Amino acid sequence: MAPSTPFVDPQTSELDTTQIITESILLAKLIGFFVAIALVPFLVAILQAVRVGSDCCSFWRVSSFSQSAPVSF
Question: Can you give the pLDDT at residue 31?
Answer without folding.
Answer: 98
